[in-house]
Every structure is written in C-alpha cells, then in structure tokens.
Description:
Layout: E1 2-5, H1 8-16, E2 24-40, E3 49-54, E4 61-71, E5 74-83, E6 101-108, E7 112-119, H2 122-126, E8 154-161, E9 168-175, E10 188-197, E11 200-210, E12 251-263, E13 266-278, E14 289-301, E15 306-318, E16 323-335, E17 340-356, E18 362-364, E19 380-391
Antiparallel strand pairs: 1-2, 2-3, 2-4, 2-19, 4-5, 5-6, 6-7, 7-8, 8-9, 9-10, 10-11, 11-12, 12-13, 13-14, 14-15, 15-16, 16-17, 17-18, 17-19
Amino acid sequence: MKKIALSSLSLALMAAAGAAHAQSSVTLYGVIDDSIMYVHNADSKGDNLWQMQQGNLSGSRWGMKGTEDLGGGLKAIFQLEGGFDPNSGKLGQGGAEFGRQAFVGLSSDQGGTVTLGRQYDPLVDMVQPLTGDNYAEFFTTPGDVDNNDNSSRTNNAVKYVSPVWSGFQFEGMYAFGGVAGATGSGQSWAAAATYGIGAFNVAAGYFRLDNASTPAGRGQTPTTPAGWGSGATSGATFDSIINSGYASAKSIGIASVAAQYVTGPFTANIRYSNAQYKPDAYSGFGSTERYNVGAAFLGYQVTPAAQLGLGYEYTHGAGDTSANYNQVSLGADYNLSKRTDVYLMGVYQHASGTQRVNATTTQSAVASAADYGFSSDGSSQEIAALGIRHKF
C-alpha cells in the first residue's frame, strides 16, 4: 500500500475552504489477482473450459481510505473501494465505481465506530475471517447460499462496531429501504459478535435481507415471477444454479457461527450456517428452502513463505426441494515477497437430489463448485487454477 500524507500546502488550502486543521492521511491501495483456470464439466453439454479467471484469493480491487484526527481520541474516517476485472478492464459489482465499499464515519477508541454508506455486513466482518473462505474462494459454500464469500454488499447502511473489551467485540447494522409508507420494504439488518482468547477465536451472527414488497419493485412482469429487485438494500447471493431458482424470495435469513484454533504451523477452523429463503405471493416457489452448511478447514504453514490448505464442505438443501453437495478443496500458496504470491488451487464437488430451476421446473441436482457459477451437465465438477496475486 502507498500512504500519502497531506502536505502543509494542502492543509492550508483546506483551511481556506473552511476545513479544520488536523492530522490527516489518505492511503491508496489495491489487489490484482489473476489466474489460468481449468473447469472440467463446465456447462450443460459437459464441455471442458480453459479461461482466465480473476479473484481466486482476493477480488481484484483498488481503493482509498483516510482518517482525520479530530482530537480527544475521535477520528473521521472514509473508505472508497471498487472491484475490477484485470482481464477486461471492466468494473466489477455490476459496473459500480465503488461497488465493494463506499462509506464515511466517526471512530473513537473508547466509544467504537459508526459508519454510513455501502458496506459489508457484520457476518462478513466477524464470522468469515474464521472460515476457509478467508484463505481462498475455492473453500466457500456452493453458490454462496449463505454469503460466506461476501457476494452481497449492503446499501444505505448504518453500522456500529464496538471497541474490543477483553477479547470481546460486537457489530450491528441496519439498512434503510427508503420506501415512503413502507419502512421495512427492502430493508436489511444484521448483528454479530466475536471473542478471542489466545489461539482460540469464535464468532456468530445473523443477517436478514428483505426484498422489495411490491411486484414493480421486485422486477415482476406478467410472464416472469418477481426476482431480487432493485428495491432491496442488500444484493442477494444467487451465484449459480444451486440457489438461482429462489431469486424471487421475499426474504433471506442467514445464521452463522465459526471457531478457529491456531497451534504452531497449523490453523484449524469449523463453521456452521443456516440460510432460509422464504417466499410470499409474488415468489416463484411455495415453500421455504433451507440450506444447512457444515465446513472444516486445515491450514499448514510449511515455511514462512509457503502455506497449504485442505477444506471440506457439506451443504444440504431441504424444504421446497432437497439436494446435497459434497465439496473438497485443496490449495498451495507461496509468497515471492511481502506483496506478491503465486498459488495453485483445486476443488471437487459432487451433487445429488433435486434442484429448482425456476417457478415451474425442477431437475436432478447438478454440480457447481464453490461460487464460480459453472453449471455442469451432471453430478460432479472439478476446477483448478494457477495464479498470481499482487498487492499495492
């Protein structure tokens, strides 16, 4: 990261414009992560695929963040962060300039931090770091049905993060739907807490996403059931065929818990989540679909520069339809320097049971490993990637 301190001339200009004299800094930073990827059984015809793929360890991004010391332990803070695809140069997150994060707030050592804007939810902040997804996307939930890989960000959000008290910390977030006369339409809210003592850490939280309440706000047409509409504050996590049949859900509720233990060169964690996709009269399905996810990860620091990872995920969908997804992931990462590393990752998934395709169609479950979105023609799929990541 490159840190730029504002010069005295800049501060003088700010003062002339009515800004207060204060110690300030702005940090410019970014990540470029790219790879050569192979997908076995990549589509409905069973074809194999070779392609360039970004973001296996970290989504490629650039951003800036800053602080201003207001005195008395109080600081003004901001962060602007946008994703991009290094293979095309296009912006990520649907083309939003700062689609990953965009917020401003106040931070106090004694009172905690309050931020306003487009933000990650508390489960991403506190639970995800204790899971295999913190190592690589290859280790995340199929279809990201529980937002373990932070496919969803939240607009119009107010978030509070407490200080750390003897290893304990908590977060709360509320996002305003902004619909006159219907305060709860499209709202989101979440809360999470974490506790760490020595080599052991545990975290848990709950995230509730509401779709817009009207057919127009939810994208309904005379021939198509309502999807996850623009009226929702949180983007939903429909990353593959595994849960795309539930894009017309009225609400999604995600409960998640994870624990991690570090001993010597080993890092071990386990996690459990329950994600519920609930319908209403505008939905294209009639019964709540529940995804129960259990996962374990083991990391081994071979040398200060080299790390290995092994993960297993079991996902069970039940309610409207019933399907099982067993997934095994392997990874190796080697640091060439403090800012540059190379990696080799692989994932295998086997699917069974029944999936919903749309309002009128179900099918035998097909594999779609991790949350890359490749839908196979059958019950198994394998993906491998050889890549490089550079941080600046």
